Amino acid sequence: MEYIPTIGLEIHCELKTASKMFCSCPNDPDAKEPNTNICPVCLGHPGTLPVANAEAIRLTRLVGLALNSEILEHSKFDRKNYFYPDLPKGYQISQYDRPLCLGGCLEVNDNGQIKKIGITRVHLEEDTGKLMHTENKDHSLVDFNRGGVPLMELVTDPDIENSNQAREFVKELQLILRYLGASDADMEKGQLRVEVNISMGKIGAGGKKQLGTKVEIKNLNSLKAVEGSVAYEIGRQTVMIKNGQKVAQETRGWNEFTGQTFSQREKEEANDYRYFPEPDIPPLTITPEEIKKLKSIVGELPAKKRIRFAHQYRLDAPTAEIFVANRDLGEYFEKAVSELEEWANNEEGDKSNTEAESRDLARLCANYLATDVLGILQSAPFREDNFPATPENFAEFICLIHKKEISSKIAKQVLAQMAKFGGDPTQIIRDKGLSQISSKGEIGKVVIQVLAENEKAAADWRAGKQNAFQFLIGQVLAATRGRANPDMVKDILLEKLSESKS
Ligand SMILES: [Zn+2]
């Protein structure tokens, strides 16, 4: 490629704390009534004193530790001075030269290739209010409920090379924020907001990259918007440069309907925010011991879990990813598997293949959770406290399938019942009369009846049509409402067909 992109991200994330950043107002992202969660502090009344939210500081440092950042032992807040109607104080409390976290990196999977993306810094600030413009645009209203909500800002190094890496970075960060309980990071709700900086440069003499004009794309509120806008800008800027046009240094927006970026405003003079240390908040300090203690509670992060699930349970990458992305489902899976392992270990008889059996059980359990259970829930997220069947019930259900005590058809009926009301699967089978028919005589009777009613299919089979056999199996299973043991049906059907043939 003649021109290569240089891409960096600036990500803002609202933290999940009970109260706002510098006052005790509730931090409620779902507040409907405007200007209800406000007080003199977050409205910036003169004479009020901000008090920093310790939980927000702790969560930001936790994110830094998860991203391999250095946690600064001495940090501070600064005032960023600018005027805008959604900023009642006339300045935003942010961090300038001593952020909470410095440096770091995050690895993303770029279509099978691991790409390490550097992180410049992670700091803490406060969110602004929200402006709402009336329909005829003759005036605007402002809601300060969001004003003063703890806002974490993360800036990446300009390491990103394509639209997929940009998307994967945001996706992985979103997952980490959720694992740490730092934020729900719902992009649609504006809890995670992305800005892209992108320029196209030529590879100069000696393979050195020359930087082009930097364009900013603001307010990207979905993964699709991040990926789409980057891909579009790479194309747009490349064509312009090739045609000898000059790329303007500007801020652009993203139109999700047309799939294009559009010019919002030309770059004005560089803003001078006249940063200075916030005089009302003491500097922030943390000792190496406290950092160590905090690091110990970071826990298992998505990247580690992905590898562990693939190894420990021999799951394929897409299935493992379902359990990593849906943490509750992953935990439920592990609880059910531990029950299954216990069962396999306690089973009588040959112990030589216990390990192989455990692996089969884990895979069967994974498939039923990732396919059938998620299918029943449709697009609703799996939450263990909302799912009526306990992991013990679920493990027993998997055992019944594994031991071929129920067919996959019956399994679906039992699972539907368990997903709605919970309960012991063996009990459900008994109550609903779903137990398997494994009596040779009983199945034989049904087979004879089915053959009598389907003479043409039987004749087709004799004429060599294999499909007819599948059809006849289906008829026997249907006649027993799926309860006949499928292996026995096959054997008996073959036996009866052969008998009548001779
Ligand atoms: Zn307040």
Q: What would a concise description of this structure say?
A:
This protein is an alpha+beta fold.
Architecture overview:
The protein starts with a strand and ends with a helix. The protein has 15 helices and 17 strands. The model has no long low-confidence stretch (mean pLDDT 92). The relative contact order is 0.09. It has 3 domains: 3-295, no CATH class; 302-431, no CATH class; 440-501, Arc Repressor Mutant, subunit A, CATH 1.10.10.410. The strands form 4 sheets. Strands 1, 2, 6, 7, 8, 11, 12, 13, 14 and 15 form a 10-stranded mixed beta sheet that branches. A 3-stranded antiparallel beta sheet has the order 5-4-16, with no helix packed on it. Helix 3 (223-242) links the parallel strand 13 and strand 14 (250-255). With 502 residues, the protein is of the alpha+beta class. The chain binds zinc ion (ZN). The site of zinc ion has 8 residues, from loops.
